[in-house]
Recover the amino acids of this structure.
């Protein structure tokens, strides 16, 4: 629908910014819950969340924008710690800890950050191109 | 556009418009109509930007959405101002013409 490709760029990049901020939100959730165990005996602890992105056709725009399809959970097994005094400890005194790996989360965070910056640069570039074109009208008197 | 200046003898601004762009796509090509359309688009975009800013302050919209809407409004305004400046300059040019 929209005829101006540069306006489309800023919308597409905007969708990218939203998606990457959502991803950072999930990373922060994972990091914050890295020690969240269950409350009852043998209960499962926090399970690491992941984000699934997908291309989504924006009909109003006529372009593919990125969208968070869903948040999935990581199926890797929980680590087990020996802590008999813990309320979530089972009969063997083992407590299941969340399957959050801080190193992986940090890498994910950096990637989200870099993608965010890339989308931001895209927006900046489109903006400066539009400004340059408008300035043509201005200074060419 | 120079050929369109033949119409300056009349008072009707519509005659200033070159025939090439006249009513080709069913829109009124007169100067007033074109400028009114530009102004209306600019106004709508600015209203959208303002609404986005307000919902951003309220916490309903994300920062990215607010910034994008404001940026679009700003660019629209800049374009409208540039067009207005050119139009005013053109009118002044005509009014300064030696008779």
């Amino acid at each position: 629908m929209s005829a101006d490709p540069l306006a489309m760029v800023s919308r597409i990049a905007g969708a990218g910014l939203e998606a990457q901020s959502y991803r950072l939100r999930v990373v922060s959730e994972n990091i914050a819950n890295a020690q969240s165990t269950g409350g009852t005996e043998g209960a499962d602890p926090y399970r690491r969340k992941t984000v699934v992105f997908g291309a989504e056709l924006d009909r109003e725009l006529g372009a593919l924008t990125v969208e968070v399809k869903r948040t999935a959970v990581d199926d890797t097994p929980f680590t087990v710690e020996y802590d008999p005094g813990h309320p979530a400890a089972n009969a063997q005194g083992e407590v299941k800890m969340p399957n959050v790996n801080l190193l992986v989360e940090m890498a994910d965070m950096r990637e989200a950050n870099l993608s965010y910056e890339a989308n931001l640069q895209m927006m900046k570039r489109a903006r400066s191109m539009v400004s340059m074109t408008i300035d043509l009208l201005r200074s060419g008197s | 556009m120079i050929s369109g200046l033949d119409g300056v003898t009349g008072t009707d601004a519509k005659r200033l418009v070159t025939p090439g762009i006249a009513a080709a796509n069913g829109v009124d090509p007169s100067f007033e109509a074109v400028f009114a359309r530009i102004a209306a688009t600019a106004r709508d975009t600015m209203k959208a930007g303002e609404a986005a800013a307000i919902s951003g302050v309220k916490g309903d919209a994300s920062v990215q959405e607010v910034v994008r809407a404001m940026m679009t409004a700003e660019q629209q305004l800049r374009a409208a101002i540039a067009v207005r400046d050119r139009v005013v300059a053109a009118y002044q040019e005509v009014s300064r013409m030696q008779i």
In short: The helical segments of chain B are 31-58, 63-95. The radius of gyration of chain B is 19 Å. Chain B touches chain A at residues 62, 64-65, 68, 71-72, 75, 78-79, 82-83, 85-86, 89 (CB under 8 Å). The CA atoms of residues 4 and 79 of chain B lie 24 Å apart.
